[in-house]
Design a protein that fits this description.
The chain is mainly alpha-helical and 214 residues long. It is built from 11 helices and no strands.
Length: 214
């Protein structure tokens, strides 16, 4: 008996390998991150990204649309990982101390991210600048005041503090030394190794929870 013929159109190209697709995307995001160590976002070209990732420029357009799309994807991935961890801090014995320690460690481990944030915040309006605000600061502006309010209700912080203002002040204490690195290093002689240390996190913790009162 003769088998029926398959008259459907032949499929072209190779079968899609989800793991390979994921790895290629990840390689490009890793390349974007690494290039930020020594370059500003605006100076990095699509060719630079492709060369760093060991691929072709067309792959950036295929996976992300353009350079901005690639950096947006990288930012979202980092932010999602960060906030997934921070959301669990409410279960820690001392959430405020844990938040300070985790934040200092995070920023100390991600200097390319600090560079991107600093460059884009000082630049004119852009979709990337807005994305930075949406993926990081806006989410923090919801998470941290809630955490502080819970500590007020537990009697660990003064009840008369505005949780939002207190949260912004705490974020400023944590981030400013990373943003003004040249001033910190050259004028104040405070080395990079100090920032993720337990002594620095304790310094910020005591300033925030006790103030400068004797």
């Amino acid at each position: 008996m003769t088998a029926p013929q398959d008259n459907s159109p032949a499929k072209r190209g190779r079968p899609v390998d989800p793991e390979l697709q994921h790895q290629r995307r990840q390689d490009l995001m890793d390349a974007a991150y690494e290039l930020l160590r020594d370059n500003s976002y605006r100076s990095i070209t699509i060719r630079d990204l492709a060369t760093q990732a060991g691929t072709q420029s067309a792959m950036i357009r295929y996976y992300f649309g353009d350079k901005q799309g690639l950096f947006l994807a990288m930012l979202k991935q980092i932010a999602d990982q960060r906030f997934s961890h921070f959301q669990r801090l409410s279960e820690a014995p001392d959430p405020i101390r844990s938040f300070i320690e985790a934040s200092l460690q995070f920023f100390a481990e991600h200097p390319p991210l600090i560079r991107l944030i600093t460059d884009e915040m000082l630049a004119g309006d852009s979709a990337l600048k807005q994305a930075i605000i949406e993926t990081g600061p806006k989410r923090m502006a919801t998470l941290l005041p809630t955490l502080i309010a819970s500590q007020q209700q537990a009697g660990r912080l003064r009840a008369d503090l505005d949780p939002k203002w207190a949260a912004f002040s705490l974020v400023s204490l944590i981030m400013m030394p990373f943003i003004v690195t040249p001033v910190r290093q050259q004028a104040w002689q405070i080395d990079d190794s100090v920032l993720p240390s337990s002594s620095w996190s304790d310094h910020i913790y005591r300033l925030f929870t006790e103030g400068a009162r004797p």
